[in-house]
C-alpha cells in the first residue's frame, strides 16, 4: 500500500507535461502562428490608415488571442485519452486536480505566455501608441490563463467525442465573453488616457476565480468523460 | 480465512440497451488470481472499469474492504504510454503518479527493455510499448492488480515471464484480476462473462 505525496506528483506531472509539449513543437508554434497571421490580416482587409487601425487594434488582438488559445485546447487531453494515460491519472491515489493543474500550467507556459509576449509587437504593428502597449501585454497576460482554464473544462467534457472541436467552441465561447470584454476594454480605456487599474483588477479577479476553481471542474469533467 | 478484499453483489451493467452482464456475484481475497474470460463484447473491459471506479453506470454493489486507490495497480486496455516520452520517462511518471517504489531501470530490464530506456516509446514496437506499461508490475507497493488483457502483443517468452510474475505476486498476497483469452492455468479462479456464465474455482 502506497500513496505518493502531492509535491512529488506535482513535480513529476509538471516535468512530464513540459516535456510532452516541448517534444511536439507544432503545439507551441501553431497558436502563435495563428495569432500573428490573423492580426496581420486586419490591415490588409480594412485599410492601412493608422487612426482606423488603432481603433480596431484592441479588439483584433484580443479576438485573435482568444481564438488561438481555443484552437490549442482541442487536443489538450486527446492523446492522453487515446493512449490510456488519462485512465491511469483518474485511478491514481491522488486527487486528480494536482496532475490536471500541472498540465494546465505547462500548457499555458508554452502556448499562452508566448501570445502575451508577442502581443505588444502586434499592437505596435496595428499603430497602437507605444504608451498603451504595456497595458495590452498585461491584459493578455492576465487573460490567457483564464482562457486556458475555462477552455480546458470544455476540452475535458468533449474529450471522448471524435469531432469535439465545434462543440468545444459552442461550450466555451460564451464563457470567454467576459474576459474578451474586459481585456479589450482595458486597452481601449488606456487608449483614451483613462486609468486602467480597476479593469485590470477585474481581469485579475476573474483569473483568480478560474485558477482556483477551474482545475477542479476540469478534473470532474474528465471523470465524467471517462465514465461512459 | 480472512475477509474478502473484494465483494461483488448482484452486479449488472447495461450498455446501448443491451445487458452486458447481470446478477454477477463473487468475492475475491488477497493472494488469489482471477481471470475474466468471455467473448468479444461480453463486457470484460467494462467490468474491470467498474471495479476500479472509472465506470459509474451499473446496478448492484462493488465493495472493497479498504479504499482502493492506494492499493491499485490498474493497466487499461490501452497501455497508457505516451509515444513522445522515452520508456524510462513513461515509467517514472507512472511510478510517481501511483506512488510505487522500486527501480525503474531494473523493472525495464526485467522486461527485456534494457538498452531501450532512452528511446521514445513511439519508435518501439507495439509489444515493447506494452512491456513499458507492464514494467509497473515489477515495481513495488501495490496490493491489487487489475489488468486488462496484459498478454496482448507479448511474445511467448514474455507471456511465460508475466505468468510467473503474477503467481509470484499472488504468493506474496496480491489480489490479481485480469482479462485474457489465454488458457487458464492451475489455481486460477475463472469468471466467465456471457450466455453460459459461470464462476469456477
Quick one: overall form of chain B? globular
The name of the CATH architecture of the largest domain in chain B is 3-Layer(aba) Sandwich
Query: What composes the largest sheet of chain B?
Result: 6 strands, mixed
Instruction: Profile the largest sheet of chain A.
Output: none
Question: Approximately how much helix is present in the residues of chain A?
Answer: over 70%
Specify the number of helices of chain A.
9
Q: Over the alpha carbons, how many angstroms does the gyration radius of chain B reach? A: 17 Å
* Coarse morphology of chain A: elongated
What does it look like?
The complex is a heterodimer of chains A (228) and B (201). Helix content of chain A is 83%, strand content 0%. Chain A is built from nine helices and no strands. Chain B folds into two domains: 1-68 and 164-201, P-loop containing nucleotide triphosphate hydrolases (Rossmann fold, 3-Layer(aba) Sandwich), CATH 3.40.50; 72-142, no CATH class. Helices cover 26% and strands 27% of the residues of chain B. Chain B has helices spanning 44-52, 87-98, 104-110, 126-134, 156-171; strands spanning 6-15, 18-28, 33-38, 59-64, 72-75, 144-148, 175-179, 189-193, 198-200. In chain B, a hairpin with a 2-residue loop joins strand 1 (6-15) and strand 2. The longest helix of chain B has 16 residues, at 156-171. Chain B is globular, with a radius of gyration of 17 Å. Chain B starts with 5 loop residues before the first strand and ends with a strand. The model of chain B has no long low-confidence stretch (mean pLDDT 87). Chain A binds chain B through residues 1-4, 8-9, 11-13, 15-16, 19-20, 23-24, 79-80, 82-85, 87-94, 99, 226-228, and chain B through 49, 52-57, 69-72, 74, 76-85, 89, 92-94, 96-101, 120, 140-143. Chain A: Belongs to the CcmB/CycW/HelB family. Chain A: It is a multi-pass membrane protein. Chain A: Keywords: Cell inner membrane, Cell membrane, Cytochrome c-type biogenesis, Membrane, Transmembrane, Transmembrane helix, Transport. Chain A: It comes from Alloalcanivorax venustensis ISO4.
Amino acid at each position: 500500500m502506497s500513496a505518493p505525496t502531492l509535491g512529488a506528483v506535482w513535480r513529476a506531472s509538471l516535468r512530464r507535461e513540459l516535456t510532452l509539449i516541448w517534444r511536439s513543437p507544432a503545439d507551441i508554434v501553431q497558436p502563435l502562428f495563428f495569432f500573428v497571421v490573423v492580426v496581420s490580416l486586419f490591415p490588409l482587409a480594412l485599410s492601412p490608415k493608422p487612426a482606423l487601425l488603432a481603433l480596431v487594434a484592441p479588439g483584433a488582438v484580443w479576438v485573435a488571442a482568444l481564438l488561438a488559445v481555443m484552437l490549442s485546447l482541442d487536443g489538450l487531453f486527446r492523446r492522453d485519452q487515446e493512449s490510456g494515460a488519462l485512465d491511469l491519472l483518474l485511478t491514481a491515489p491522488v486527487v486528480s486536480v494536482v496532475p490536471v493543474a500541472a498540465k494546465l500550467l505547462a500548457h499555458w507556459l508554452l502556448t499562452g505566455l508566448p501570445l502575451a509576449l508577442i502581443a505588444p509587437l502586434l499592437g505596435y504593428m496595428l499603430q497602437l501608441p507605444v504608451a498603451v502597449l504595456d497595458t495590452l501585454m498585461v491584459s493578455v497576460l492576465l487573460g490567457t490563463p483564464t482562457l486556458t482554464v475555462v477552455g480546458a473544462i470544455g476540452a475535458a467534457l468533449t474529450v471522448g467525442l471524435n469531432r469535439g472541436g465545434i462543440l468545444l467552441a459552442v461550450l466555451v465561447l460564451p464563457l470567454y465573453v467576459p474576459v474578451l470584454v474586459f481585456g479589450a476594454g482595458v486597452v481601449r480605456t488606456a487608449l483614451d488616457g483613462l486609468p486602467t487599474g480597476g479593469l485590470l483588477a477585474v481581469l485579475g479577479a476573474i483569473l483568480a476565480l478560474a485558477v482556483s476553481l477551474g482545475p477542479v471542474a476540469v478534473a470532474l469533467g474528465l471523470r465524467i468523460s471517462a465514465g461512459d | 480465512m480472512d475477509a474478502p478484499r473484494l465483494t461483488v453483489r448482484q452486479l449488472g451493467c447495461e450498455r446501448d440497451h443491451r445487458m452486458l452482464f447481470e446478477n454477477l456475484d463473487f468475492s475475491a481475497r488477497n493472494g488469489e488470481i482471477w481471470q475474466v474470460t468471455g467473448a468479444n463484447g461480453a463486457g470484460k473491459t467494462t467490468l474491470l472499469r467498474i471495479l476500479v471506479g472509472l465506470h459509474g453506470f451499473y446496478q448492484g454493489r462493488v465493495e472493497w474492504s479498504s479504499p482502493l486507490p492506494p492499493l491499485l495497480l490498474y493497466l487499461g486496455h490501452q497501455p497508457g504510454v505516451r509515444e513522445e516520452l522515452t520508456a524510462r520517462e513513461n515509467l517514472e511518471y507512472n511510478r510517481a503518479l501511483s506512488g510505487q517504489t522500486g527501480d525503474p531501470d531494473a523493472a525495464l530490464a526485467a522486461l527485456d527493455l534494457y538498452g531501450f530506456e532512452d528511446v521514445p516509446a513511439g519508435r518501439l514496437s507495439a509489444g515493447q510499448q506494452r512491456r513499458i506499461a507492464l514494467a509497473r508490475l515489477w515495481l513495488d507497493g501495490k496490493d491489487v492488480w487489475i489488468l486488462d488483457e496484459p498478454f496482448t502483443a507479448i511474445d511467448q517468452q514474455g507471456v511465460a515471464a508475466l505468468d510467473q510474475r503474477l503467481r509470484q505476486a499472488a504468493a506474496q498476497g496480491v489480489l490479481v484480476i485480469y482479462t485474457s483469452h489465454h488458457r487458464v492455468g492451475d489455481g486460477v479462479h475463472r469468471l466467465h462473462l456471457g450466455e453460459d456464465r459461470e464462476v469456477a474455482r
